[in-house]
Every structure is written in structure tokens, then in C-alpha cells.
Design goal:
Layout (H helix, E strand, L loop, with lengths): L1 H15 L15 E2 L2 E4 L14 E10 L9 E6 L4 E6 L3 E9 L5 E11 L11 H4 L1 E6 L5 E5 L4 E5 L7 E3 L14 E4 L7 E5 L6 E5 L2 E5 L10 E7 L5 E9 L3 E9 L5 E8 L7 E8 L5 E7 L10 E7 L2
Antiparallel strand pairs: 1-7, 2-3, 3-22, 4-5, 5-6, 6-7, 8-9, 9-10, 10-11, 12-13, 13-14, 14-15, 16-17, 17-18, 18-19, 20-21, 21-22
Length: 317
């Protein structure tokens, strides 16, 4: 009788529980997701950016009503066909088509897909410990490299599909949350070459798929800045993205471009009152006229007080 009474009580409570509302329309299956892109300004209306060779080319705040996983974007690349590729702190892979207006300014994203990265056995990565993807690089072959924190390593995802395989990474002690956030292909050194760096110390390495990594020069940076992204550019130039955070003044971001000899040939600072968040991913698209289009993405850390921002900057040497 006591069991029967408990069952009746449970049924009554279930009948009184609030029912979650159904969506207004059927949700699509598969990896396709809807992404809302709201335009954002470079800064307040009465603020003027420094004349440093960088020009604002549009900015967006990205959200999605279709998924709770469009967060934590930590690096991105742009393929030759104009599709964006990004990875997240939770081991997700985002692809989308960049939408530009007639003037070439960033105005939206379309045709977005979001799916989990696969592990060595071909199954989706299921844990944060193994899925904290931070760096992304596209090799000339089309193969994709992804660097991970917590379990520090670099995996190669074949362009033809299939499970990844582990490739060479620096044999250096790295803290759990200060690993290889910066990762870039280095075609000037070979089709299988790539460069990476430690976030906290600014140590750099050049690696090849089947050869040990070789230490390179240490990045000259203030101690409060971390190295969060890198992209090699034509002519022996390299772009580095540095990030600092202070609770009193917020985020500070520096996009620094150096030449083959290590001299700084371009520098862009983003700090308040400019529009800013936790920018830590960078793509670089060289142009025929010698200029470079940079795309920066911010990692919102899955926090409601932060945003996922995607901005475009044009740099002319």
C-alpha cells in the first residue's frame, strides 16, 4: 500500500509540473544550425581609432537559437572558397560561409554547421579534458591541424575525411591551461611545416608532420600578455595575436606583425572604449594588392557576461 501511495503521489506531482513549451517550428536535424549575426560598431560614436594602418571592415555578434554549443570559439581559419572554419573549447567544429557586402565588408554568416571533432577511434570527443581545442591550422594539402590544451597534443584531420592522427608537437613542459593556443601552417618552410607557441612564456617552435619540433625565437612581450594566435603571411612576415586581462581595465588585445628579421612592421591595439571581448582566434587572408584581411573571433568561455564577436580588419603595409 505504501508503494502504491508513493506511485499515486508521483503521478500527481508529474501532472502538476510545468510543461516546457514546444518550439514554434520543427528543429532541423544534422549539423546545420541557424546563426543570428548582429552588427556591432568598432567603438562609441564619439571615439576615433588610431591611424595605424588597420581599417575596420565590419563586426558581428554571433548567437544561435538552435544550439547551446555556439560558444567558446578559440581559433579560426578561412578557406579559399570563403568558408570559415573554427574550433571551440568543448571540441566542436564550426563551419560557415562569410557574407560580405559589395564593398567587401563583413555583414553576416550563412550556411553554418556545428559538429563534434572526432577522436582517434573516429568517435566524437566527449570530455573537456580531451576536447579543449585551442589552435587551428590548414595545411596546403587541405589537411587540418588542431592543437589541444589540458591533454597537450596536435592532431591532423585528413582533408579526405576519417579519424585524426597525432603529429609532432613540442616536447616541452606546458601548464594545463597555458598550452599551444597559437598554431599556423608555415608553407615558406615546406608544405608539411607548421609553427606553434606556448601561451604564457612566448616560446615558439617550427614543426613538421614526421620530424621533431625545433625551438625558435621567444616572442618579446609584456609578462601580462599571452600568445593566443599566429598566422604566417607572404614575404616572410608573421602575425601574432597577444591577449591580456585585468579586472580593472578589462581585455587588451595586440595584433602584431613582424618581418623575417623580427622587426615590428604593424601593430594594432584593441582596448576600451573600443568594442572588445576575449579575442583569441585569428585568420589572415592575403590579397593581390598586398593588403591582408584579418578576422578575429572572441572566446566567450560559455559565460553570459561575455560575447562571441567576429570582426574584420584590413591591414595595408
Amino acid at each position: 500500500m505504501r508503494r502504491l501511495g508513493g506511485l499515486v503521489l508521483a503521478l500527481l506531482l508529474a501532472a502538476c509540473a510545468p510543461v516546457a513549451p514546444l518550439p514554434d517550428a520543427p528543429l532541423p536535424g544534422g549539423p546545420g544550425i541557424a546563426v543570428a549575426a548582429r552588427a556591432i560598431p568598432q567603438g562609441p560614436a564619439d571615439w576615433r581609432p588610431a591611424k595605424d594602418g588597420f581599417t575596420w571592415a565590419g563586426g558581428l555578434e554571433l548567437t544561435s537559437p538552435a544550439t547551446s554549443r555556439l560558444h567558446g570559439l578559440s581559433d579560426l581559419e578561412v578557406r579559399p572558397d570563403g568558408r570559415l572554419v573554427a574550433v571551440s573549447d568543448e571540441g566542436d567544429l564550426l563551419t560557415a560561409r562569410l557574407v560580405l557586402d559589395r564593398a567587401g565588408r563583413l555583414v553576416g554568416v550563412a550556411d553554418a554547421e556545428l559538429k563534434p571533432l572526432s577522436a582517434l577511434d573516429g568517435r566524437p570527443i566527449e570530455s573537456k579534458q580531451w576536447g579543449d581545442s585551442e589552435g587551428l591550422a590548414l595545411l596546403p594539402s587541405g589537411d587540418m591541424l588542431v592543437s589541444f590544451e589540458l591533454r597537450h597534443r596536435i592532431w591532423l584531420y585528413p582533408a579526405a575525411g576519417g579519424p585524426p592522427r597525432e603529429v609532432a608537437s613540442p616536447q616541452a613542459p606546458l601548464p594545463p591551461n597555458g598550452g599551444m593556443e597559437a598554431l599556423s601552417a608555415d608553407p615558406d618552410r615546406g608544405p608539411d611545416a607548421y609553427v606553434t607557441a606556448s601561451e604564457n612564456e612566448g616560446e615558439t617552435w617550427t614543426c613538421r608532420l614526421a620530424a621533431p619540433c625545433v625551438a625558435g625565437p621567444r616572442i618579446d612581450k609584456p609578462p601580462e600578455f599571452g600568445v593566443v594566435a599566429v598566422r604566417t603571411l607572404p614575404g616572410g612576415r608573421t602575425a601574432w595575436l597577444l591577449r591580456a586581462f585585468n579586472p580593472l581595465i578589462g581585455n587588451r588585445i595586440e595584433l602584431r606583425i613582424i618581418d623575417r628579421g623580427g622587426a615590428v612592421v604593424g601593430r594594432h591595439l584593441i582596448q576600451r572604449p573600443a568594442t572588445i571581448d576575449n579575442f583569441e582566434g585569428m585568420a589572415a587572408v592575403p590579397r593581390r594588392d598586398g593588403s591582408v584581411r584579418f578576422y578575429l573571433v572572441s572566446d566567450d568561455n560559455f559565460q553570459p557576461i561575455q560575447r562571441t564577436l567576429l570582426i574584420a580588419l584590413d591591414w595595408r603595409p
